[in-house]
């Protein structure tokens, strides 16, 4: 079985390495105004091999198919559609920052009816709208579905998600977001993980780069850079100069445990106080063995079922009461927990109990 020490060795850094590592500012913050915009559209996928929507169960598929055909000059008034090679889909994408007309973006296509698979289908020209209702891109192309479905008369196998797929570079940008980035007098840097120490370090590194007060920390999650004080031509030039500066971030001590997989991840700053732990397993066993009792051949009785239950209670000796000395580093904490000699799933319960006792000096996140 995988021990906590192995997981910590693979997933965690030693405190010395964590403190010495510098991260680029561009990987720690979001620049004000430099953001994407979500797009969504409603379209039709055609060319499916009998795996499309059932028109009886998805009447909206018939509506969009009739609308598309009428726009193409085909009169379908009063006609009855019963194809199985089309599917109504939702098309989603994200318009990246500073996208220009004529550029291309990826799109994701997801079935909304009872289609079984989008494999081999083609998305027909679909407008993609922003939150303001305006059309910013138009999507079209062959759908790449990662899943597969095999079905017979009495059995069915589905691997992956065949009702969703992607179209790489499947949408062309038709409208640009009206935003003049170079007119900004200040640029705010929003930290992805707000922390006063990290924000102060970013402020100090930027001011050291320019040799004068250019950046100012507003709070744990915001640092403002004054463009005029930087003495450069535009905000773009300022961000190009500061985004690759290295900063050693600080984060809260945190332990993340996943009950489903038995995974434990500990940060380098996790500490525990001196504590004693006893761990054992309790097994309750209940067995039902009913007995059928029949009367004698010449007796005027009935056959009855008599219940019989066996109940047992087993308790393993466990590890006894073990003392964990206060850890001053991640390796000492891991060594102390491994001294208990339990499995990762049992370790999750032990960490939860240590946290409840107030001896775990870290944020415990249970997923």
TrEMBL record:
Function text: Assembles around the rod to form the L-ring and probably protects the motor/basal body from shearing forces during rotation.
Keyword Cytoplasm on entry: no
One GO MF term attached to the UniProt entry: structural molecule activity
Pfam families: FlgI (PF02119)
GO biological process: bacterial-type flagellum-dependent cell motility
Name of the protein described by the UniProt record: Flagellar P-ring protein
GO cellular component, one term: outer membrane-bounded periplasmic space
Keywords assigned by UniProt, alphabetized: Bacterial flagellum, Cell projection, Cilium, Flagellum, Periplasm, Signal
Family in the record: Belongs to the FlgI family.
Lineage: superkingdom: Bacteria
Signal peptide: 1-20
Organism: Rhodobaculum claviforme
Main location: other
Quaternary structure note: The basal body constitutes a major portion of the flagellar organelle and consists of four rings (L,P,S, and M) mounted on a central rod.
């Amino acid at each position: 079985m995988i021990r906590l020490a192995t997981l910590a060795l693979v997933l965690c850094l030693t405190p010395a390495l964590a403190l010495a590592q510098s991260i680029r500012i561009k990987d720690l913050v979001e620049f004000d105004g430099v953001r994407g915009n979500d797009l969504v559209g409603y379209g039709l996928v055609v060319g499916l091999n009998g795996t499309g929507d059932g028109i009886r169960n998805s009447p909206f598929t018939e509506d969009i198919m009739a609308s598309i055909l009428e726009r193409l000059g085909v009169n379908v008034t009063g006609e009855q559609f019963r194809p199985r090679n089309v599917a109504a889909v939702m098309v989603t994408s994200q318009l990246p920052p500073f996208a220009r007309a004529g550029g291309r973006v990826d799109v994701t296509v997801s079935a909304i009816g009872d289609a079984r698979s989008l494999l081999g289908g083609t998305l027909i020209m679909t407008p993609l709208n922003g939150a303001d209702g305006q059309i910013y891109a138009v999507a079209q192309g062959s759908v790449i579905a990662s899943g597969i479905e095999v079905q017979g008369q009495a059995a069915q196998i589905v691997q992956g998600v065949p009702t969703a797929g992607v179209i790489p570079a499947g949408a062309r940008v038709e409208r640009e977001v009206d935003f003049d980035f170079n007119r900004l007098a200040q640029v705010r840097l929003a930290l992805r993980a707000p922390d006063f120490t990290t924000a102060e370090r970013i402020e100090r590194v930027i001011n050291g780069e320019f040799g004068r007060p250019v950046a100012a920390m507003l709070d744990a999650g915001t640092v403002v850079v004054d463009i005029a004080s930087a003495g450069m031509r535009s905000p773009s030039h300022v961000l190009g100069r500061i985004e690759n500066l290295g900063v050693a971030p600080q984060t809260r001590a945190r332990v993340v445990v996943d009950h489903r997989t038995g995974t434990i991840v500990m940060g380098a700053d996790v500490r525990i106080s001196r504590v004693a732990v006893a761990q054992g397993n309790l097994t309750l066993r209940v067995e039902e063995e009913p007995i059928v009792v029949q009367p004698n051949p010449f007796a005027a009785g009935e056959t009855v079922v008599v219940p019989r239950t066996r109940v047992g209670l087993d308790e393993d000796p466990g590890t006894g009461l073990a003392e964990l000395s206060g850890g001053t580093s991640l390796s000492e904490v891991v060594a102390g927990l491994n001294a208990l000699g339990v499995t990762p799933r049992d370790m999750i319960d032990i960490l939860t109990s240590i946290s409840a006792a107030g001896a775990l000096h870290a944020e415990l996140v249970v997923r």
